[in-house]
Amino acid sequence: MPRGRYSLHDPHDHTPLAEEHFHCAIGPSGWRYVSQLTTPSGDHHGSVDLTLDELGRPIRLELHAAAWQVRGAALDGVTWVRTDPTGTEATEGNVRAHAFTGTSPAFLVATARLLRLTPSSAATRVRLVAFTDPVLAPRTVDQSWALLKREAHATDNGPLAVDEYQVTALDTGEQHSVHIAGDVVLAAPGIELEDLETPPSVFT
Question: Does the pTM of the predicted model rise above 0.90?
């Protein structure tokens, strides 16, 4: 069960945004990721609880940020309910999309798991619903993912396979790289892995 800490920062000016303390695990029905976020000053900032089925589809998502809450799942595309800080207003949304995304590294692992690309695969288009900070506002985004290469890196616990993806935002053409080992993001724009207590899990 990998357990560790990511630092999240603005990918453009590198302003620190939060630290995400996480643990995740592969189970008989899929994969679950749970995290707590804190501000740079140490205050509670939110949480992420994401469960995927064995095909990589989001069967349960719960996000908290700035007293806003989102609960969602893959249902007729993806469906979610977003609740305001007072708890008096709840709005439901549904989009013909494949999955969710957001600032948490969990979503990068989830998208890679959903697509299951190989280095010989063509770039694959995916539609995602992004929940943007600070109020978890939903926005539909189209991306293209390609697995550029898979390399084995020697570690104290044996070889570690690292996948390098190229992710393209189809509305702007902006491209960036994402490096993932198993169920842990090693590097991505705005994300740095600061601490990892146990090695990444390996999806079969």
Answer: yes
